[in-house]
Amino acid sequence: MSLRRLLRRAGPGPGPRRPPRRGLFSASPPPWSQVVSEAEKIVGYPTSFISLRCLLSDELGNIALQVRKLVGTRHPLLSTARGLVQDSRHNLQMRGLVVLLVSKAAGPSGPATLALDHGMVSGIYPSQRSLAEITELIHTAFLVHRGIVNLGELKTSDGPLKDMQFGNKIAILSGDFLLANACTSLAQLQNTKENWITDDIGISAWKKQTFLSHSALLAKSCQAAMELARHGATVQEVAFQYGKHMSLSHKINSDLQPFVKGKSDGSLAFSLNSAPAILHQEFLGREMWMKQIREAQVKGSLDYSKLREAIKAGKGVTSAIDLCRYHGNKALEALEHFPPSEARSALANIVFAVTTFL
Asked: Where does the secretion signal sit in this chain (predicted)?
């Protein structure tokens, strides 16, 4: 039975059924933390420390001392810093791990890579491990920069204005520092590529934006890992497709968490640009969606609990689950081009973990 058929048999709905496993897979989908732990053993070392070489540098050490001044405020840089040390739910180091797993699953490209074999550990070239670190640095910089606060929307409970301004400066400087280190390391690989991002307007704008902001980094990193091992264009495209679709599936899974039964506090805010909300709007229509938002406003604040129930009552959640599993199937389809191995099994288990909803 093919990998994607295993996932397809899980069905489109949000029910408690889990995708069945055969062959390389266990009888039931393991929890995310177990999937990551088993995958890290395959690539040779825990990727949770993959970028500590940069994060523990003297420069960032000084920045960390400054971040301590934000304790007591609600600046998002604090939660980002905590997440860099431990994030058991989404695992911030997932991208580097996938790059290493794809590298191991593809293996050497043939006799042409004999000169590259020196320094190979667990079937992965040193340049591919460096690329995994670079991928994590770029994503970490993205997270840090995303934590910049809109000072015009501050509330008294967020903390003093001067502290929030200081936090923004630290977020900009530390994010830029990480990007600078990533660019330096990328140049040392002597395999840089340029990406041009243009504005896009249309019905598919959300999907394109999500790819550019969340999936392009992993997809192109997987592709570059194949190029570093001198694989041909076909294998590079397969790796790109896995990274793209797995990352999209992971993002949709993250968007779905506030709407999955028993997963969230009804009073917590969620993004109105999340996959369930966007799909709900498409089914409902823009005018009715704006009406629901207006009806959910109480004294100038949005009642997320009421809006969440409105979205759950529509087709947005089930459609988002279908979309998540669609991209999971596409990722599994790409994996079928790799020979059976522990690395391929781990990559498939990651897909099963992000496409299973209780």
From this structure: none
